[in-house]
Amino acid sequence: MTEPLNPIVLIPARLASTRLPDKPLADIAGQPMIVQVWRRAMEADVGPVIVACAEQAIFEAVRDAGGEAVLTDPDHPSGSDRIYEALSKSDGEGRFNAVVNLQGDLPTIEPETVRAVLAPLSGADCDIATLIAEITEPDERDNPNVVKAVVGLGAGETVGRALYFSRATVPHDVGDGVDGPLYHHIGIYAYRRLALERFVTLAPGVLEQRERLEQLRALENGMRIDVALVDTVPLGVDTPAELDRARKTLGA
User: Fold this and answer.
1) Which of 57, 102, 113, 175 has the greatest number of CB atoms lying within 10 Å of its CB?
2) Mean per-residue pLDDT for 200-204?
């Protein structure tokens, strides 16, 4: 048995973006995008929500909206490093034993999707939880920008163990009557606190560097990642076109 989960939601945010500069501060329905993400996380109602900010401008935008924010080292190499610093600063006492790492560019994410990422942590052997959705668009199957999760879900199962993540089209179907779906990995994570503390001490792995997928570092070091299946992939805002879609969705 595992102890009851007591989660905290941390949202890493930084201004540097090659395709959409300063995107955390982009206006969506009268609020900066990072504030919209913070609101969605608050609506999920799984625990306190803190934005881990790389810059003062993000910090001020969140605080002006009534949210909680923590300034972090702007030179962190990854979001997981950033949220770990924010966790250490905001909860040095260790009150929270689970940490949701929510991307700061998901302004239209449904609250139930945020809640869903915690489901796999009910299994005692799970170190890290994340989300998948079945690929339904044919062009996504071979798109290297769509990360695939290799997981053997049986009929009716919604939680399973991730065996690998890749930009390649995997698993391969040999066409002998046992073909199945491909799964789109959604980059939202829930860590057991001790797993996050271990993860940030690990050196980048060989496969991680080849695929440019940070989650492979955990698998290469024997950590267990379980996934929960959800219905849809939330809109990630990385381009002006995606920003327009988010504005339309939220009524701007």
Assistant:
1) 102
2) 96
